Amino acid sequence: VILLGSPRKNGNSIALAKQVEQSAKDSGANVENFYLHGMDIQFCTGCSKCRKKTSKNCVIDDDMQLLYPKLRKAQAIVFASPIYWAHVSGQMKVFMDRCFALGGPEGHDMEGKRYGILLTYANTDHFKSGTINAIRTFQDSFSTGIVDIVCGNAMEAGKIKENKIIMDRAYALGEHHAKSLAAD
To answer: Which pLDDT score, from 0 to 100, does residue 111 have?
Structure first.
């Protein structure tokens, strides 16, 4: 599963995600993309009803209901987002908040999955924003591991495509995900 957090369909994080998708498919993996900006994903209200033993998902009836079973089934999940004002895009952040429903009294439905992270940022120091720590906290709460983080420096839409090293790293991330899952 690739989660696309950019509102720009021709944006830089989407370009990296396309590299991951192509390499994973070239390696025999099935890939599904979800363009979060085009989905109806409401804000978490903090009601904690998703944590009751009788609940399997969040009670909010929106497109997260489509995503929950896809996330549970996926062996690998790739997050692709621009960094906006020190964090992932608003769309990605709302999605991450709603993943609270995937961990409950019986354990975590995301345990053991592999994560790939694709970030684009106008600044050259991706650690300065705090985004990577936020994503690590997210994945730590689900007892999962980050396979790789690819951070590219680009502002204008499509500019990342000029950076062959970063585009190749994104391709390698997809290939690595697919091959390591096939070996399991």
So the answer is: 79
Residues in the chain: 184
- Please say whether the beta carbons of 124 and 153 come within 8 A: yes
> What is the pTM (predicted TM-score) of this model?
0.91
CA 14 to chain centre: 11
Q: How far is CA 139 from CA 107, 134, 163, in A?
A: 14, 9, 28
Q: Are strands 103-104 and 107-108 parallel, antiparallel or unpaired?
A: antiparallel
d(CA 58, CA 104): 11
Distance from CA of residue 100 to its chain's centroid?
15
Residues 157 and 53: their CA atoms lie apart, in Å, by: 45
**CATH (residue range 2-183):** 3.40.50.360
Question: Residue 59: pLDDT above 80?
Answer: yes
What tens digit of pLDDT does each residue of 136-147 get? 888 887 777 777
Q: Domain extents for the chain?
A: 2-183
pLDDT at 126: 66
